[in-house]
Design brief:
The complex is a heterodimer of chains A (about 290) and B (about 150).
Chain A: H1 3-8, E1 12-13, H2 14-35, H3 38-42, H4 54-58, H5 66-84, H6 89-107, H7 118-126, E2 140-141, H8 142-169, H9 179-187, H10 190-193, H11 199-215, H12 224-245, H13 250-253, H14 263-274, H15 281-288
Antiparallel strand pairs in A: 1-2
Chain B: E1 5-6, H1 10-33, E2 57-67, E3 72-74, H2 79-82, H3 86-91, H4 93-98, H5 103-113, E4 120-133, E5 136-149
Antiparallel strand pairs in B: 2-3, 2-4, 4-5
The chains are: A mainly alpha (about 290), B alpha+beta (about 150).
């Protein structure tokens, strides 16, 4: 195998897939009912305001109607729940993936496209490919490794390609401009608005953002402490962005967890379950509480 | 990871590698030459534009309306309030200016989404322009861009 192949197919315990599925399918109701619920509101609008994006035109996605969108919501969430329970991981998983892609494509077909859904869409499509995966399954699997790597790459792509777009559209002078001032003026929170009088600080933040976005590629090769430090940095970045201008990027940010050894959560769970009351009288209370 | 290891056969590997390579190539291509039309691919244009520190302008649009009970209200910025988000109003601004009758759809959606609230009689698209000097806002202008009398 080539070094690239060894890297991309590095085996990962199937348990990590099981945890990522819980995350993905657990997040779907939150996303569809709160973040991209504009799809339901759009269904009330006349078709003349429907501006389908290329994908929607290619597959001849019709303008949404309330009945169709409620049906899509129910089918997608139900398929996600089945897959999260570990049943029919492929059929149910792909159903949820296609249903969600339809949903989010409608949501983006009214004149504004958001860019925080790439990792979620990729995760929904690659997680089913790993087949059956149980929370206790600590056996290494190349199929799981490939899927996890794809989610990681999609997460990094969202950062890296943002920096690329800034150079393409804003130009090399982007970090010295007033884009952050623009954002804080339009949607700054009270703490965010405190910063509008400090343009130099805003420029520094723009430099940090740009360097971090280009540097995000390092997440793909970092290991151990450096990797966790990187993940913590980007998680902190999203927290600060949310505090200053209520942009949370959650459909993207949750996938930073694909860099973490989630399979260890299974061991924690088992260790708690294994403790019998005779051996550790105090443990029962702790586990129940 | 000790003992057994679940490996992939050559064919399973081939389609996975091909699919991943195709998506990455498409992402790179759309980032270099594409537009928002290529959703869910690139380019990742959020905040990619630049604003001049001196003479740069911050434009924003929102919807206001007269209601049947004689009030003038600012319509909610989210889709569930008016059927269209502010960014969507801005994304379709050229169309709305060419054909203000599209605003009728918003009045109709508002009536369906909030049947209990007073009817909208007139809808305004309002624009504000804030001008920057040395990276700070020094002046604000506000005016009505489009009006539509609801049928």
């Amino acid at each position: 195998m080539t070094p690239l192949g060894r890297w991309w197919y590095a085996p990962v315990p199937a348990a990590r897939i099981a945890w990522l599925r819980l995350l993905a399918y657990g997040f779907l109701p939150f996303d569809m009912l709160l973040l991209t619920n504009s799809t339901l509101a759009h269904a009330q609008l006349p078709a003349s305001l429907y501006q389908p994006v290329m994908l929607a035109r290619l597959v001849h996605l019709p303008a949404p109607t309330p009945g169709a969108m409620y049906a899509l919501l129910v089918v997608t969430l139900a398929a996600g729940a089945v897959a999260a329970a570990g049943r029919l991981p492929r059929i149910a998983g792909f159903t949820a993936a296609i249903g969600y892609l339809w949903w989010v494509t409608i949501s983006m077909s009214y004149g504004k496209v958001d860019h925080d859904h790439l990792a979620l869409v990729v995760a929904l499509f690659v997680l089913p490919t790993a087949g059956r995966a149980r929370l206790r399954d600590q056996v290494g699997s190349e199929a799981a490794g490939w899927a996890v790597r794809c989610v990681q790459i999609a997460t990094v792509c969202a950062y890296f390609l943002s920096a690329w777009a800034k150079m393409r559209i804003g130009g090399p002078g982007w970090p010295n401009g007033a884009t952050l001032q623009w954002a804080l003026n339009r949607r700054g929170t009270p703490p965010g608005r405190l910063l509008v009088d400090y343009p130099a600080l805003l420029r520094v933040s723009q430099w940090v953002t740009l360097v971090a976005e280009f540097g995000s590629l390092l997440l793909l090769v970092a290991r151990g402490r450096w990797l966790y430090l990187g993940v913590a940095f980007f998680a902190g970045f999203h927290v600060v962005t949310y505090a200053l201008m209520t942009i949370h990027f959650l459909p993207h940010a949750i996938w930073l967890s694909a860099f973490l050894p989630l399979e260890r959560l299974s061991e924690l769970r088992r260790r708690r379950a294994d403790r019998s009351p005779e051996e550790e009288p105090g443990a029962l209370v702790a586990a129940d509480g | 990871m000790q003992g057994e290891l679940r490996r992939l056969g050559p064919r399973a590997r081939l389609w996975r590698s091909a699919a991943a390579a195709a998506v990455i190539a498409a992402l790179c291509w759309t980032s270099a030459y594409g537009s928002d039309d290529h959703f869910p691919l690139g380019p990742m244009t959020q905040f990619a534009f630049t604003v001049k520190n001196d003479g740069g302008e911050i434009h924003s649009h929102w919807l206001e309306a007269d209601t049947a009970d004689g009030r003038h209200v600012k319509l909610s910025m989210d889709a569930v309030g008016t059927g269209l988000k502010r960014a969507e109003v801005e994304g379709q601004m050229d169309r709305l200016i060419r054909d203000p009758s599209l605003l009728q759809g918003i009045a109709d959606a508002q009536r369906r989404l909030h049947p209990g609230r007073p009817r909208l009689t007139k809808i305004y698209i309002v624009k504000s322009i804030r001008t920057l000097h040395k990276g700070k806002v020094v002046s604000t202008r506000q005016f009505t861009r489009v009006t539509w009398t609801v049928r």
